[in-house]
Amino acid sequence: MRRWWSHCGSVSSLIAASFATLMGCTRSESNGPPYTPRVREITVTTVPLLVQEQQKVFPFLKSAFAKGGVLDGKEVYAFSPSTLVVVEGDTVHFTFINPEDDVHSFVLPDFAVSLPASQTTHATYVATHAGVFPFVCAIPSHLPMMSGQLVVLRPGAVTGRAALSPSGAVASGATK
Predict the structure, then answer these.
(1) CATH number, domain 39-171
(2) How far is CA 154 from CA 27, 43, 70, 85, 158, in A?
(3) pTM of the full predicted structure?
(4) Residues 6+ apart with CB under 8 A from 109
(5) Structural domain boundaries in the chain
(6) pLDDT tens readout for residues 29-74
(7) CA–centroid distance for 36 within its chain
(8) Which of 6, 112, 162, 173 has the most C-beta neighbours closer than 10 Å?
């Protein structure tokens, strides 16, 4: 006569594995088709946050931009969006929009684009390595505020519950 607990190990393992699979808690490279690199269209805009031209609208900025003020010699711009997400192997077609009268740049460790004033610039980048890569505007008066990050995911990271849209946005709960 076999005792009921002699089966507990295998039954409980099976139940645990089934539950984990249903809940999406297990990840295996073989659980789905391999990731195929994509072409992603990403638009990045330069945005003025605190610039000298705003002194007429916001009088408190006069002292900030004055000699010795907190913004002396600086202007605060940003990239929008400031966090970009792609997958290793993806080709990114960037559209950079610079509506301002100031020149900017978009600089990654292995990629640099000049962004002339009041122009749209197109550039292509291939995300060859997974990781988090900072990008900045290399204009000294725009540092360190004008910065962001490019997050390059490993292909296995997007085969589960989170996926990316072609624009580089994270689509929560989507599956590929």
Answers:
(1) 2.60.40.420
(2) 13, 22, 41, 11, 8
(3) 0.71
(4) 133, 134
(5) 39-171
(6) 455 678 899 999 999 999 999 999 999 999 999 999 999 999 998 8
(7) 19
(8) 162
